Every structure is written in C-alpha cells, then in structure tokens.
Task: structure prediction
Amino acid sequence: MSFIATPQTMHFPEVLPLQSGASLRDYHLAFETYGTLNADASNAVLVCHALNASHHVAGVYAGQDKSEGWWDNMIGPGKPVDTNRLFVIGVNNLGSCFGSTGPMHLHPDTGEVYGADFPVVTVEDWVNAQARLLDRLGITQLAAVLGGSLGGMQALSWTLQYPERVRHAVVVASAPNLTAENIAFNEVARRAIVTDPDFHGGHFYRHGVVPKRGLRIARMIGHITYLSDDVMNEKFGRQLREGLDLKYSTQDIEFQIESYLRYQGDKFSEYFDANTYLLITRALDYFDPARGHGGDLTRALARATAKFLLISFTTDWRFSPRRSREIVKALLDNRRHVSYAEIDAPHGHDAFLLDDARYMNVMRSYFNSIAKELA
Result:
C-alpha cells in the first residue's frame, strides 16, 4: 500500500553561485519527505533523481489515480528503504519543470520567463542547492544519499563536495562520467529539439507554442537506450501493428515497436519542458569528477570518506557494469569501504526502477544495516 505524499516548496532569496560563473537568486526548491526525522536528525536519506523524474519519489497524491512516485516500489513503510525507520527526502533539481525554479519561471530581475536565459546548471550546482535545503531542515549529516543513473552521479558528487556530511552513498546504474557514445545520444536528442521550428531559440513560451516534434524524437532516442535489445525483442519482436499484411509505406507505422516509441514520445511531449531537457542532458555531459585530477579517478575520489554500495545491471549498455567497476576500483585504491552488486537482469538501464528480487534484496539488506547503526 502506498501512503499519501505532500509536496512542499522552500524559497531561497540568497544568491547561489554556479560552476559556470553565473548565479541564481530568489529560487524555489520543490521537495517531499517521508517518515519521521529522529531526535538527533541522524536518520535522513536524500534521494537524487534522474533525467525525467522529480521530487515525487514515493507515495501517491490524495485523490489522484496513478500518481505513484517514480521509486514507490523501493521507498515506503516496510519497503527496502523503510520509512518506518528512515526519514527520506526527495528534491527536485533546479532547471527542472516539476516545481523547482527552471526555464518556465520568471527571472527576478526582468520579470520575463527565463526560457533559454536560464543558466546552465551542473551536478555540483544541484548538490550545493540540496545542501542548502538540508541546512534549512536541520540536517547536518545524511545517513545516506541514494540515486540511480544521473541521481547516482549526484550521490557520488555529494561524497566529494561534502564528505563530512555523508555516511553512506548508494550509487545505482551510474558512471563516473559519460562515454562519447552517451554524449552523442544526448547531442542528437538536443538537435532534434533545437531544430524544431517551434523552438524559437528557446523562447517558445513567448510564441505560445511547444517544440513537441523535437521532444518526441528526443524521447524516442532516449527510450531506445534505456531498454536492452533482449527486452525489445521479447516485448515487440517484429510484430506488425495491424494484421499480418505489410502496407509498403515509408511513413505509416508498420511495427509494434514503432507504435510504442511514438506513444512514449507523444506522452513525453505533453508534460516535459524542452529547455529542461537541454539543461539536464548537458549536466550529464559535464559531470566528470576526475577532470580536475588529470583524468585520475582514484585521485578524484580520495576525498570521499563515506561507505559505498554500488549496483549495476548486466544488460545496461548505457551505464554498463564496467563503469561502476571503475568507481569501485578507484574507491578500493583509496581503501574505502565498498560493497558491489552486479545484477544479471534483462531489462537494460530501466532495471534500476524495476522489481528484480535480487536487486530489492540487496537494497533492503544494505538499508537495514544503516537503520541498525542508528539504533
């Protein structure tokens, strides 16, 4: 059973310096909390979200059907991350389109919608903003920071930016940086958006339009990379959409997989902001903690003092197990406490959101040990 979740918003009038040299002020962060913060504020778990997710991590909204949080199978009373024992916080990142200040909001200096003028944000900027929210909530140290994919990059960055504030870091289906292939996929998706005639240089709000064509293609590209070849073949194979006869058309939908991708693209274009897509994929591209250490990940991770759990999935070719093992090796080179699980699952990158029993058991066991430390 899911519980009722209540979204909250916190305003920050002060300036937040960004890595680019720009800054934000008078911004808001949307967040949700689940469970109860204990007396010494030691049982807090921060959950960092991936590209198209938000602060709505778990639970449902009152009176809304199908409003489960994106990790509701993982987080809640009696679930692997047990909110009967832990206080969980989900934060929506700056630049998002789900409540925190982003391109759809007004610039405090001009009174105009930011649009393309919203500054580029990085993983490190998000972590700094999250740290300010925790300060407001009276949390000086996290029992754990947890994230999958881009969220895992944030969890890793937490251990480097605020090593003294993190006791455990759980990094799932993630990487220490993007490969050239990953950056290439992101660039093709961005080009689909910026070349849409309705994009208007990122100021499409002024024109009362949305670059839906570009967003559809961007989502279709992304969705292909989240699934494994095996899953796509098992789910769709070469099934035709209608009957058994080919239409011999270059433009009609012929195959079930085409129909599925178009459905996903159409749905995404109705709720996701195009400028947000550009910002978040760029943050993915830029993340590379080893960059400032001559590419040496071991040196980069020397600052981390947390205990780590890393999890990867064998068929995840976008964030392959090899990339998680790079992090594991660098941490072990620094003599850090590391647990690593490589799950033989068929679902590709999306596996980190699904109910694989082995995955869930690893998470349950690890968070049980965290909860026992607090007893």
About this structure: The mean pLDDT is 95. The longest strand covers residues 27-34.
